[in-house]
Amino acid sequence: KTLSTDHILDSLSNCFVLCVFCCLHFWHGQLGALERYFDDACCIALSGNVLLNWALVARSELKVIAGHAAAPELKHQIAQNAAALVDEFPGVVASLGTLRLFHIGKNLMAEVELQVVKGEVLALANLVRELEDKLTGQEVERVLVTIRASASA
What we know:
The chain has helices spanning about 1-25, 35-65, 70-90, 120-135, and strands at about 90-105, 105-120, 140-150. The model has no long low-confidence stretch (mean pLDDT about 85). It has a three-stranded mixed beta sheet, sandwiched between helices. By secondary structure, it is an alpha+beta fold. It contains four helices and three strands.
């Protein structure tokens, strides 16, 4: 997106400069006092437009890098799905701890914390894989599962 914006701005600025050059060439001597400042004013306007567009691109890219929280309704729905899966999973006594959803690009990343009381390694691995498979979808791109030992569920 950033590269395409750069190419579009380059093309528009070249067209703008060509239009300014044509105006100054064809109306030479007819613009009066405006003629002396026409080129400078157009350069300032063009620079301001490019700076504004780059500021908007930088803002959107920083949001992608920094991430921002997902909608609370979506978080609640995913938390319910994850909690139901954890509670009903055989061979593991665990509960859902913290669930965080962040935007990474256009999709979400889910951080799931499991509070595990007991369970075998293979059952825990299957639970993690099942959480990743069930929570990954159209909105969630990645799932990170952290397992914490707990004295009680």
